Amino acid sequence: MIKTLLTVSISFALLAAPGIAGAQGNAGPGKAKAASCAGCHGEDGNSQMPGFPKLAGQHKAYLVKQLQAFKSGARISPMMAALAAGLDDQAVDEISEYYANSKISANPPPVLPVSDDDDDAPAKTDDQKKAELTTLIAQGSDLYRNGNLATAVSACVACHGPYAEGNKPAAFPALHSQHADYLIKTLSDFKTGVRSKSKENMMHMIAVKMSDQEIKAVAYYISTLK
């Protein structure tokens, strides 16, 4: 009986082996081809620089779409256009697969930048700064989930999900654990039209109605989601 069970177990292992090898193989070329991305986005897609986005855990379809947009010029970035120009469709697919299968890292607790302090005002105490940050994140949470009816700002949750996990079938990006600084820049670029050439772009139509304070608040809130 034991011999029979061992034989069956080995047989199943041998049948599964090609699938396992295939899965590892998909990550292999993608990781190697993503080596030139590591300087800005981190070796595993977890950028340590808040101005550059984390790519780890992002939906593959969204990453493919963005790399193709950089290649075609639909999304403007001289740096990314130069890098994407040398990628064929297979490389784009393998790099996107690699990052999609990487795990995004959680952010440390947020802190307000020193530049937010008014030089002419008395220095804020730690308790005051903590209270200000708590208020900011609460504002961001409300905006993310409910939008702003008074200014017709749509709720982020409709497209990006309750935990900012995104929408994989629709290729709407995951946002959780992203750097607040990058999110602020992205929303600001959508607002000013830098990110998209089309005034009909959905994110432009939303961001253009947002105040700088709202952009900052929702970015800080999203950065805390895991």
TrEMBL record:
Chain positions recorded as heme c 1 binding sites: 37, 40-41, 80
GO molecular function, one term: iron ion binding
Region ranges (Disordered): 107-128
One Pfam entry name: Cytochrom_C
Keyword rRNA-binding found: no
InterPro entries cross-referenced by the UniProt entry: Cyt_c-like_dom, Cyt_c-like_dom_sf, Cytochrome_c4-like, Cytochrome_c_Oxidase_Subunit
Signal peptide: 1-23
Gene Ontology CC: one annotated term: periplasmic space
Keyword set, alphabetical order: Electron transport, Heme, Iron, Metal-binding, Periplasm, Signal, Transport
Main location: periplasm
Domain Cytochrome c: 25-103, 135-226
Binding site for heme c 2: 156, 159-160, 203
Maturation and modification: Binds 2 heme c groups covalently per subunit.
Compartmental location: Periplasm
PANTHER family in the cross-refs: CBB3-TYPE CYTOCHROME C OXIDASE SUBUNIT FIXP, CYTOCHROME C4
Listed name of the protein: Cytochrome c4
Lineage, uppermost ranks: Bacteria, Pseudomonadati, Pseudomonadota, Gammaproteobacteria, Methylococcales
